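We both want to read discrete structure tokens more fluently, so let's practise on a single case. Would you write everything just below, so we can both look at the same thing?
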Amino acid sequence: MAETLINLGVKLMPFSFFFYLPFRTFLYIINRNHIAKLIKGIWYLSLGLGYVSNMYDVNFVVMFICFMEAWDLTHEFIAGRKSKEA
């Protein structure tokens, strides 16, 4: 059963990444940025565990992390710019 769950996690990882992008935007709109950090931390933990157990290639891990960080930094920039205008 554990092997089945691991295989399911490997297949769902790219989809969870693409779900994070609109979900992060939604959390920005409703001003719940702390929840986004928790979700990103859990996602990084699962991605790191997948890398340590040789389920993912290092290029795969770095690509997802770079895109997620870029998306978060974009939202932080917009929030910072908004707070300076107010």
About this structure: The helical segments are 2-29, 33-52, 58-85. The first helix runs from residue 2 to 29. The radius of gyration is 15 Å.
